[in-house]
Hints:
This protein is α/β, with parallel strands linked by helices and 329 residues long. It contains 7 helices and 19 strands.
Amino acid sequence: MHSKVIIVGSGPAGHTAAIYAARANLEPVLFEGMLAGGVAPGGQLTTTTEVENFPGFPAGITGIELTDKLREQSERFGTEIITETITRVDLSSRPFKLWREGAETEEPDTCDALIIATGATAKRLGIAGEDKYWQRGMSACAVCDGAAPIFRNKPLVVIGGGDSACEEATFLTKYASHVYIAVRRDAFRASQIMARRAENHPKITVMWNTHVIEAKGDGSVLTHVVLQDANTKEIRSLDTSGLFYAIGHTPNTAFLDGQLNTDETGYLVVKPGTSLTNVAGVFAAGDVHDKTYRQAITAAGSGCMAALDTEKYLENLAAEEHERASGKL
């Protein structure tokens, strides 16, 4: 199957790109994935319960409901959505080639322009109780979930030792009665200014050499965590209504097999102020290249950018082909 535009990814970035591309009559095809990266179609947004900071929903909306609305809007304007995962691509020449999971030896799908919107997956620890209490007191995004009623005026725990952990802990002090940072070593990896800010904050306690080994609750929500001292192996319990992972994200770029430029942590690199990658005709949108903001609304904005950049690219491509056919090139 050949398409003008293929979008890989189905979160706010992918669907916004699809909406804009479809309205521009580019007839986009969107591969939403089938549990790609272990996450349902819709990406990280589907693991969020209540979304209160996406404009247009004053009463809030669940992550799954928002994803469904984005999908419905994409389809309304003519986007073809395929619930399959792209596992391999060839970007060495145009048209670009893409292979579906389980069909890697068959003829590939092809396209003139490609938008990568595969996002990034939050790293987890796999501790006991994690699956049971994820989004029932456990989260990987303090900015997304920290203001939820279940966390207000309650003790909260952040796991991590870098800038993200310090930033998220500081952010959570706006809502929590107290914030504990569990650091596995005896020092922060964070920058000095961020570490000092966290250590000196009256509502933050840093627990050095501390591993969180289990999340426990009442069967409905998280109520406490089990801690282990890295040196003495002593085990103790700490009451908390929230456990936030701040141990990083993994950008979903493995299927690209190094064909696009990335930074040292695997995030796609784009030309500043655009969605352009190092390969002409390939664009990046959302958390697959944004490791700073990682919000649904910023992902949607970059999806818009990718679609507009794609439209301009295809227009220029058509103009060049017309001039070549008429002998002007």
